[in-house]
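To close the section, here is one more complete example, presented without commentary so you can practise reading it yourself. The ligand is phenylalanine.
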Amino acid sequence: MSEFEKKIAEYKSKIKSSSKIEEIDLLRSEVFGKNGIINLEFKKLVELPLEEKKSFAANLNKIKQELQDIYKTKSTEILDKDIIEKVEKEKIDITLPEKEFKIGKVHPVSQVIDEISCIFSEIGFSVEEGPDVENEYNNFTALNTPENHPAKDMHDTFYLDKDMKTMLRTHTSPVQVRTMLKGKPPFKIIAPGRTYRSDSDQTHTPMFHQLEGLHIDKGINMGHLKGCLNYFIKEFFEVNKIKMRFRPSHFPFTEPSAEVDIGYRMENNKIIIGEGDKWLEILGCGMVHPNVLKNCKVDSKKFQGFAFGIGIDRLAMLKYGINDLRSFFECDYRWLNHYGFDPLDVPTNYRGLSR
Ligand code: PHE
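Output:
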C-alpha cells in the first residue's frame, strides 16, 4: 500500500469515528482543502507520463468521491443527533409545580378597571381611550361648559400653557366628544383613564381615575340609565341588594343631571355595602345635553342618550376596604403586597370578578 493509500484509509476511519461537528470540519479541510491530501496528490499529475495520466486521475476521482460520500453521511448523522439532543434538553415539564414567580401584584385600580370593563362588556359596551393632555374644546367647550364655569378656574385645572388652551383633562368626558366626532351613532362605550384636578385630602388626589360611560341611540331615556347603573353596582359589589340614591345635580353637559351615592356602614373597620346610613358619592350622570350632541355632529332630534362618570378609586376603596385614597399612589411595596391582586387571576364574569 502506498503512503497516500495509507493516509486515505486513516482519514476514512477518522471521519467514520468522529462524533463532533468541529472535529469532522477539521478533517474536511485536511482532506479536501486547498492544501489537503487530495489536491496534493492531484499535483503529481503533471509529472506523470501521458499514458498513466488518465487512469491516475480516474482513480483519484473515485477515491475523492468515496471520501465525500463518507463525509456527507457522517456529518448529517452528527447534525441530526445534535438537533435531537437540543430538543430533548429544551423539553419543559409542564407537570412540575410552579416556582416562586408571583412577585408582582396588580394594583387595586387596575384590578377595578378590569372588573368594570368586564361588567360593561357583558351588556354590549366597548372600551375607548383618550389622551391625558387635552385641548380646551374637548375638555370644556364641546361639553357645553360656559366661559365662566368654576371648573375652568386655575384652582381646579392644571393648565399647560399661558393661553389656557391645553390642560391635563379634568374628567374623562372629553372621550365622549372624541368618540362621537370620529364615528356615527349609535354609541355604546366606556372609557377608563387618568384625570387631574388640583385637590388633595383623604378622598381627593391631584391625579385620580374615572370611567366614562356613554350610550346614545334612538329612544334612550333616564330609565335605561338607572337600570344600567343598578346592574353595574350589583355586579361590581357582587351583592344582590344595594342602597343607591340619585341626587339632583348639575353638569353643563347633561340635562337632567344626577349624582349617585351608595349606602354603606362600617363594622370593625370593615365597609359593609348595601346597609347602614352612610353615603359615598361615586358617580355623576345624566341625559346628554342636546348642545353636546350638536357640537359632536349628532342629530339630537333622532338620537339621545345618557352619560356617566364613575370615580374608579372610590369604588376600589369601598370594595376593598381601603381608607385613604392617598395611599393608592404612594408606591409603597408593602401596601401593594397587601392590597394587590394575583396577576394570574384575571377577572371574568363567569369565574368571578375578585377572589
Ligand atoms: N365629568 C363629570 C365629573 O367629572 C362626571 C359626569 C360624566 C357627569 C358624565 C355626567 C355625565 O364630575
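Once you have examined the C-alpha cells, check your reading against these statements. The mean pLDDT is 90. The pocket of phenylalanine is lined by residues 171, 173, 251, 254, 284-286, 307-309 (CB under 6 Å).
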